[in-house]
Amino acid sequence: MSATPASGAPSAPEVLRAPLVVEFPFTRSVGPVQSAFLTGLRERTVLGVRTTGGRVLVPPVEYDPDTSEEIGELVEVGTAGTVTTWAWNPEPRRGQPLETPFAWVLVRLDGADTGLLHALDAPGPEAVRTGMRVRVRWAAERGGSITDIACFEPYADGDAGRGEGADPCRGEGADPCRDEVADARSDAGRAERRAEPVTPGAAERGTAAGPRPHSGAFDDPVTGVVAPARLDYTYTPGRAQTRFINALAGRRTTGERCPSCRKVYVPPRGACPTCGIATSEQVEVGPRGTVTTFCIVNIKAKNLDIDVPYVYAHIALDGADLPLHGRIAGIPYDRVRMGLRVEPVWTQGGRHPDHYRPTGEPDADYDTYRELL
Amino acid sequence: MRDVAIVAFSQTDHVRRSEEVSEVEMLMPVLHDVLERTGLRTGDIGFTCSGSCDYLAGRAFSFTMALDGVGAWPPIPESHVEMDGAWALYEAWVKLLTGEADTALVYAYGKSSPGSVRDVLTRQLDPYYLAPLWPDSVALAALQAQALIDAGETDEPALAAIAARSRTAAEGNPHAQLRGPRPQGGYVVRPLRTGDCPPVGDGAAAVVLAAGDRARELCPRPAWIRGMDHRVEPHALGVRDLTDSPSTRLAAERAGAFARPVDTAELHAPFTSQEVVLRKALRLGGSVTVNPSGGPLAANPVMAAGLIRVGEAAAAVHRGASDRALAHATSGPCLQQNLVAVLEGEPHVR
C-alpha cells in the first residue's frame, strides 16, 4: 500500500514561502519555592528543597516527584559540585548559555542529591569527564533567573567545597583553575569572567557538613519570570492556498468546489470540511458580496493602522458557499447591516483587498444568505 | 470489557520537507487510504482523535485546519492531544472500551520542515529552569547517552551498530526517509553522531480501531489490543536515572507485556542510545525482532512517529508476520513519557 507521498508532485507550482517569526515574552509567576531559588541565584546563593524522605532536590520543586507531597523545607547547598553526566556541544545554538563550544552538564551541587542542568565552559571535550569538579560562574548582572548562573567552570581543587581555606581558587591573582582553561576561551568568556571576579570566601559555599537550613527569605523577592522566546519558521501555504494567493495577485478571488457536495470554499484550504475530500476545481467568485454578519471593533490592536471603531464582517462573495472575513469601510460604522452589498477595494500594490465598501445596490434578501450564517 | 483491535494503518512517505502541501493536504491521502482499507466512510466513524503540535507549525490551533480532512460536518465526536498520536490512540481505545463508540479514526502528523525542530522542542521543557537555557533535543539525548556509556551499558560502536541495523531494516520500508546504511558521521552533540540521531522530516499516519465483531468484519486478522498503558517520569532530568526507564517498565507491566514473550517490538527510540534503555526496561531478548520497519532512526515525523510504531506493529500482525507484538511510543526529553501497547493476532484460520 502507499498513500500519496507527502511531496514530489511534479506539477506542483512554485512554492510560495515567507518568513514567520513567533516571538513571545512568556510571563510566569512563581510559587514560594521557585521564588526563593530564583531570588537566591540573584544573591549568589543556591537553594534546594528537602523531601520528607530526606533527599535534597536542586533545582527545587514544590512537590516531591516520588510521593507528590507538597514540600518546602529550603536548604542552602554548595556552589561547587560534581558532574554526573555531560555532552559536548560543538556548535552552540541561539539562546544557549555560551557562544563558544561548551559542555552540557548535569551537576550535583555539594549537599544536593539531584542534578542541575547547565553549561560548562571548558576548552574542549578532553577537559570534561563525569565526576569532575565544577563550580558556578555567576553572571555579572543577575535578576532572578536560571541564567544568573552564567555557566559552570572547572574547579581543579579536589577538596572544593569541603572546607573554607582549602581552596586554591580563592587566592587573589594566582588562579590555577582559571589558567587551566583560559587559553581556549573566547574573548567574550574572558570579559564575562573579568566582570565578575570570584569573591574570596563567598564563591564556593556548602560543605561536607551538608546542606544548611535556609529560611528562603530575601529582600525584594522575585515573584515571576519573563522568558522571551523566539522561533523562526518558513511558512509555505500549500497547494490550495498558493493557487488562491496567486489569483489574488491578479485581483481575482477564487474558491474551490468540492467534487462531491459542489460547495465552493473561499479561501480554499484544499479540503471540503463536510466531505473530507480534496477540492480541486477552481471557481472565480465575487467580486461583489453580501455582509452576512459583522461586529464593531472598539479597541485598537497594537500596531494597527486603522482608526476605531471599525467594522469587521463576514462577507459571502457571489458564488461562494462560505463567507470570508473582511473590513467594511466607506460607510459609517453604525450604518453597516446584515445584507449590505459590498465590493472589494484594492490599494496600490496591495496583495489582497484592503477593505470592502458598499456597492449602492439594494440590500440582499435574507433568504439569499441565511444558509451562510 | 470488550476487545478492541487496530484494523487498518496507513502512513505517508516521510520526506525531509513537504513545502508544496499544507498539513491537511499531506494528511488527506492517508486518511482516505486508511478508510479505504476498511470500506468505512468518514461519516461511519464513531470517534476521531488526533495528535499534533502547534509549535511545529508555529500557528495556534493548527490542528483545527487538519479537521477539514476528516469531514467534520455534520458535527462529529472529536478530540485532539498536543502529543504524539499514540496518545490519541490511547484516548480512542478508552472510548471504545467504554462502549461509547464501535469504531475510531486516529491520526497524527508533523511537519518539522517549517522550523528548526531542535529549537522548537526546547519549548516543551520546564519554563523556569530549562527552557531559558535552550537545551536542544540532541543535547539532552546526548547527556543520556554519556550516562549510559559511563555506566558501561553501551559504547559508540554498539550505538553505531543500532543505527546500521535500523537503516538496513528500513530498506524494506518504502515509506522510510533514510533507507540503507549510512556513515555515522561526526559528532552532533558528543557522544551522539549524525548516525545516532533521527532524520528530521515531515509525515503523517492514521489507524482505524474497531471493537469486537466490528473489527472482524473490517479486517481479516485484526491486531487485538491486549493492553495499553502510559507512564511519566519526573520532569527534571537531574532527578532521574537516565540509564533506566522505570516508566516504560511499569507501562509494559500494566499492558501485560511480560505475561508472555513478544516476537516483534516497534520501539520509539529516536536516538540509538534510547534503544539501549528501552531494551533493558522492556526485557527484550535476542529472539525479539526490534524495529523491522527501521524505526524512528529511519523516519521520525515528530508527533506521528509513536503512532507509526503502533501502526507498524499492528500491520505486522495483520499480515501474519507477528502473532504478539509490542509497540512503544515516547514523548518529551530523554524518554520522559512512555506508552506501551501489546497487540495480538488470533491464530490463523485456514
Helical fraction of chain A: 10-25%
Secondary-structure class of chain B: alpha/beta
Order of helices and strands of chain A: EHEEEEEEEEHHEEHEEEEEEEEH
Q: Name the poorly predicted regions of chain B.
A: none
Structure, described:
Chain A: This is DNA-binding protein. Chain A: It holds the Pfam family OB_ChsH2_C. Chain A: Keywords: DNA-binding. Helix content of chain A is 12%, strand content 31%. Chain A has 373 residues and is mainly β. A five-stranded antiparallel beta sheet of chain A has the order 7-6-5-8-9, with helices on one face. With 350 residues, chain B is of the alpha/beta class. Chain B has two domains: 131 residues, Thiolase/Chalcone synthase (Peroxisomal Thiolase, Chain A, domain 1); 201 residues, Thiolase/Chalcone synthase (Peroxisomal Thiolase, Chain A, domain 1, 3-Layer(aba) Sandwich), CATH 3.40.47.10. Chain B is built from eleven helices and twelve strands. Chain B is globular. The chains are: A mainly beta (373), B alpha/beta (350). At the A-B interface, strand 1, strand 5, strand 6, strand 7 and strand 11 of A face helix 1, helix 5, helix 6 and strand 7 of B.
Main attributes?
heterodimer; A: 373 residues; mainly beta; 2 domains; five-stranded antiparallel β-sheet; 19 strands; elongated; disordered N terminus; B: alpha/beta; Peroxisomal Thiolase, Chain A, domain 1; ten-stranded mixed β-sheet; two-stranded antiparallel sheet; 12 strands; globular; acyltransferase activity, transferring groups other than amino-acyl groups (chain B); Lipid-transfer protein (chain B)
Secondary structure elements and their pairing?
The complex is a heterodimer of chains A (373) and B (350).
Chain A: E1 18-29, H1 32-42, E2 46-50, E3 56-57, E4 73-77, E5 80-89, E6 102-109, E7 116-120, E8 133-138, E9 149-154, H2 176-182, H3 187-195, E10 212-213, E11 224-235, H4 238-249, E12 253-257, E13 264-265, E14 281-285, E15 289-297, E16 310-317, E17 324-328, E18 341-345, E19 355-358, H5 366-369
Antiparallel strand pairs in A: 1-11, 2-3, 2-4, 4-10, 5-6, 5-8, 6-7, 8-9, 12-13, 12-14, 15-16, 15-18, 16-17, 18-19
Chain B: E1 4-11, H1 23-38, E2 47-51, H2 54-57, H3 62-66, E3 78-81, H4 85-97, E4 103-111, H5 117-120, H6 137-150, H7 156-169, E5 187-189, E6 192-193, E7 202-211, H8 212-218, E8 223-232, H9 246-255, E9 264-266, H10 272-281, E10 289-290, H11 305-318, E11 324-331, E12 337-344
Parallel strand pairs in B: 2-3, 2-4, 9-10, 9-11
Antiparallel strand pairs in B: 1-7, 1-8, 4-7, 5-6, 8-12, 11-12
Helix pairs in contact in B: 4-11, 6-10, 7-10
